[in-house]
Amino acid sequence: ILLRNVMIYFDLESKKIILGKMKKRLNPNGHLILGSAETTYNIDPDWVASRENNSTSYHIPEKR
Q1: What are phi and psi of 42, to 5 degrees?
Q2: Suppose 44 and one of 7, 18, 19, 32 were both cysteines; which one would form an S-S bond, judging by CB atoms 3.0 to 4.6 Å apart?
Q3: Which candidate, 53, 48, 55, places its Cα nearest to that of 4?
């Protein structure tokens, strides 16, 4: 899911709602891509950051 430079315009509660909705729509092994000024850190602990080259994406680890 590409959601680049969108969440910067919302308050914390709205960001939580948005990330919750993205969790429900993300395919297994899918990734969420945000803008460089955006993060899921301190908003929703279910998301895990993955760094590759100079890019960061976020995913939900599989529950075991």
Answers
A1: 65, 15
A2: 19
A3: 55
